[in-house]
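Please produce the structure of this protein holding fe (ii) ion.
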Amino acid sequence: MYDLFIRNANLPGGRKGVDIAVRQGRIAAVGAALQGQAAREIDATGRLVCPPFVDSHVHMDSTLSLGLPRLNASGTLLEGIALWGELKPHLTQEAIYERARKLCYWSAARGTLAIRSHVDVCDDRLLAVEALVQLKRDIAPWIDLQLVAFPQDGFYRYGKSEENLRKALKMGLDVVGGIPHFERTMEDGRLSVQALMRIAADEGRLVDMHCDETDDPLSRHIETLTAETRRHGMAGRVAGSHLTSMHSMDNYYVTKLIPLMAEAGIAAIANPLINITLQGRNDTYPKRRGMTRVKELMQAGVPVGFGHDCVMDPWYSLGSHDMLEVAGMGLHVGQLTGLKEIDACFGAVTEVPARIMALEGYGLEPGCRADLVILQAEDEMEAIRLRAERLYVIRRGAILAESAPREAVVRFGEETRHLDFTRKNLG
Ligand code: FE2
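Below is the modeled complex.
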C-alpha cells in the first residue's frame, strides 16, 4: 500500500509514461505501469513531473521590501545600495521574518522548495540573522532554507565583519559568503577571499561568494576563489555567484580561467534577471549584458545554477519568485537555444543547484524524498516557454500547493477556442 501514485508522467530528460509511487515521504518506486494500491492517485498523463525548483541565490533579508522607505527611481544598483542603507536602521526582526515568510508562500506555490539565501551580517544587531535562523527552523517541514553569512559591506571594508560573520555561523547560518570586488582595493579583495576560505575550511562549511559582480574586465577574484578551492581540497563545496566580470574579460584569459574552474570543481551561479538589468549601466552602445559565460561554463563541465537574487526589493522591483522566469531569462540572455541547452537551463533551476547546495535526497530515484512538482507542460522546453502552471507541488508525499490549469477562452463569432498554449493546442 502506497500513500500516493502519480500515473503516466513525463520526466525531465524525455522519459514518458512513468509511474511514481510514494510511501512515508519517500519515492518508493519509479517505473512503467506500477502495480499496487495508493491512498491517492494523480493522473499526470502528458505532464512533466520534476523534483522541486531550487533557488540557489536570493536575499531574503531584503525581499518584498519594495517601497521601503521609497522606490528605486533610477532602477540602478547604486540607488539600490543607497536605499538598503536607508532601510537598514529601520529594520526589525519581526518585519524581516514576516516578509521572508511571505516569500516562502510564493516559493511553495511556484514549486521552489529549496532556497539558499544570503544574509547581511554587516548590521551589528544581527537582526536578519536572528529572523532567518528562526524562519529556517519554522519553515523546515515545507522548504529547505540554507543561509549564507554574507558580509555585504565588505569583509575588510566593514570593521566588524569577521566578528559578526563568526557569530552568525554560531547562531545557525550555514555557508560562508563574501564580496571581494566590494573591498577597497583589489588586494583587499584577494585577501578577503583567502581569509574567508580559511574560515570555511577550518569550520567545514560550504562557500558561496558574490564574486566579481562588476563590469570590470580585470576583476580576478574568481581566479583566487578557484585557486583557494583547489588548495583547500574543497571541490564540490564552493560556488562563485554572479561572476559578471567574466562577461567582459579578455577572451584569451577566459580560455585559461574556465578549465581551471572545472579542474578545481567550483560551481557558478548566475542571476540572469538581475545581471541583465544591473550590469552594463555605464555603457552606451553596444551595451553589455553582464551575465557570466554560462554557455562556455556549461560546455566545460562547470556546474551552473541560476538564482533569482532579488524579489521586489531595493535592487529589483519586479519578480514573483518564479524560477521558470529565471530559467527563461537565462536562456535568452545566454542564447542557450540549442535543445540540450534548453534542458540545461531547466537543470540550472533544479538538479544542478540541488547539487551545489548538497541537498539530501533530491531527485526522482527510489529512496529520494517525495518532493515533486507536476507542471502544465509536457517537457522542459514547454515549461520554460509557458512558465507553466505548477498544478501540484508535493512535499514529502503530501500536497503542499496546487493551481488550476491555465486556460483562456477566445470567441470569434460562433467559433469558440479553449487555449492553454501547450503544443497539444496545435493539434
Ligand atoms: Fe546577490
